[in-house]
User: Fold these one by one.
Assistant:
Number 1:
Amino acid sequence: MTIQELTQTLNSHQLAYVNLELKNPQNGEYMLCAFHLIPGGTLNILQAACEVSAESSTGTNFLVNTETPFSKEMNALVYQVDLEKSIVYIAYPTRLFDRNGNIQNILTYIVGNVLGMKEINALKLLDVWFPPAMLEQYDGPSYTIDDMRKYLNVYGRPILGTIIKPKMGLTSAEYAEVCYDFWTGGGDFVKNDEPQADQDFCPYDKMVLHVKEAMDKSVKETGKKKVHSFNVSAADYETMIKRCEMIKNAGFEPGSYAFLIDGTTAGWMAVQTLRRKYPDVFIHFHRAGHGAFTRKENPIGFTVLILSKFARLAGASGIHTGTAGVGKMAGSPEDDITAAHGILYFASQGHIFHQSWATIPEKDENAEGLTKESAANHEILHDDSWRGIKKCCPIISGGLNPTLLKPFIDVMGNTDFITTMGAGCHAHPKGTKAGATALVQSCEAYLKGMDIHEYAKDHVELAEAIEFFEKKKK
Ligand code: CAP
Ligand code: MG
């Protein structure tokens, strides 16, 4: 059936949620979404799209007598359908959304009830486009990787990190010992793992204090600044804030700590609370659980790009975006790299939409060129007349080890990210410190344009890592 024929099949309820003649959807009044949609039951794709448009905006499954001329203006509208690819485009009036810059509210509309509707067999939100008005209204990141680079004095290479392993079970003193080994081995950044909380064998307050001691000792010994990302996820708001304040009051230098939040399980309110309450802290979004929505095999959910774009809009300083098939987690270059570029760059092409993260006044016609040149491009956006959403850094983790650093950089196309290698450091045959040194050496080899096997000839820790991890791969 042609789109004209499909339109003839719509009932009056469905007709209220479609406008295939919508002039210039990017006129600034709408947030735009593109869904892959396979209809369920007896519906055709346009009927199902209208049902989704209704349920994800003002409607339900019948026209109701209580609607008003104004409420109809808030209807989302199906404005385009790609029959070949089964992609439907829906425009959402931005006035639908909580005017306090609330990400949770938007997602409750566009990937809320609609994921459970009988009228669809597949519904995957592929990409979203934010109009300039939303870029004005939402927080975006405050403390970014550019600020962390300044603090660490690390430029022109990835920030080299680890996750302490075993994931759980070390006492606070043992945990801090591993941090010390990684930092004295040359690593920059340590994160708690995603389940770290206040376990009886590793009390939160003791973990914080032991990490502070380990950090002070390693900074003194290496003469280099270090960062620790503390998991502040908690059962309730008060406890989360108590953990943040405990860290802030433990004597850490501003810049030497980040707050990690399990954004998928703790929720967007936690992410935005941290961003708004601690604008001078790196907010680290760990996405454990995202696979239920984002895996390619899942026909119902949303892409890594969607999760990452909303994390940037919410103000996460960084979010895990996956290893593009190089590491242990599912994920393809197409998915993971599109997401990583989508949150790092000033402007980038997503799966469907091209998104510019700032509105540039006519008078600044050379702006895009300027921002492209400057690594701290968002300083320009931040200080200038534009209202820009700063960069959100990809955090690259999951099954990586020193032999995989260059393969990932080759796929990524840049080094502006944090990488955290857990087993990739702590499984090194000579232990964590050697594992960290091997990671540093693999980065040195990359920067010198040398193959790691060549460089390993006079860098023993890297040689041992290659021997161990390449053998394991066989
Ligand atoms: C990595 C990790 C991270 C994953 C999360 C883990 O450990 O600590 O949580 O990176 O995946 O628990 O698996 P390893 P993603 O380095 O030992 O694999 O980054 O894709 O969200
Ligand atoms: Mg983990």
Number 2:
Amino acid sequence: MKCKKCDQKAVINLQHHNISFCKEHFLEWMRVQTERVIQKFHMFTKEERLLVAVSGGKDSLSLWDILWQLGYQADGLYLDLGINDFNNYSSDSAEFTRRFAEERGLQLTSMDIKAQYGESIPEMAARTKRGHTKPCSQCGLVKRYLLNKLALDGRYDAIVTAHNLDDEAAFLFANVTHWSLDYLGRQYPLLPATTGFARKAKPFCQIYERESAAYAILSGINYIYTECPYSDGSKQLRNKRYLNMMEDEQPGFKTQFYLGYLRALKAGAFPQQQESAAKLEEKRCAKCGQPTQSDGLCTFCRLVNK
Ligand code: FES
Ligand code: ZN
Ligand code: ZN
């Protein structure tokens, strides 16, 4: 197996593209692909300030590295969720992230949820006792809220997350099987800013998980290998497995599935519900001022306020 570009021994074969690369040309290919997606969806420019959500995992550190190498002004945000019960997931991932930023001289903001709000994510979830043992929904809510808040407070032009093609295809699969039209109308990789909400972009939306892992390993990025202990047995992981089976039989399946969705979205197949600015101004959280659909407090303030 030889590199398509230089004829040297290849270290990776991308079956769905039917190409192989040596280390150097694979890393270059990843940067080119990411830049292409940024341009294709008009995500952001080099003059804008970006806030990258980093977890210490392969996807977010690879993305941050690529954005930095491409010359984007990308700062990192790490949220310490306080998930240390089964392994040291949060403490270890905080350390990987800190070292990554330090080695490159990048700006990293870290927030310890427990220090800030008095409870870790598992503690918040246990208190709210919604009949679920896992804290994933509370965790998602807190992460979305704080990422948005810190981006707005820091006057960033866009929030950047490292959702890869496997993540997007698995969400899509779940949303299609449940016919969640509401979600299907919102899964575009670029969501423009609206009242109270920062712009959100996903530059890895066409990058396979395997590729972002290979990028991290081949470029010597130290990242946390363990997953969040609560992700075990999740629907998202199960859907990823199903899609991997399809991909094994039909290389390129995930790409086709995702790009087909984007075409359908563009053709108006799903309602793209963008709340109008006036509507968002109507109701504001009494505590934090965020637009909210409920009276009084927003869901985040209700969760941390109890
Ligand atoms: Fe949030 Fe696992 S519960 S990362
Ligand atoms: Zn090569
Ligand atoms: Zn609020």
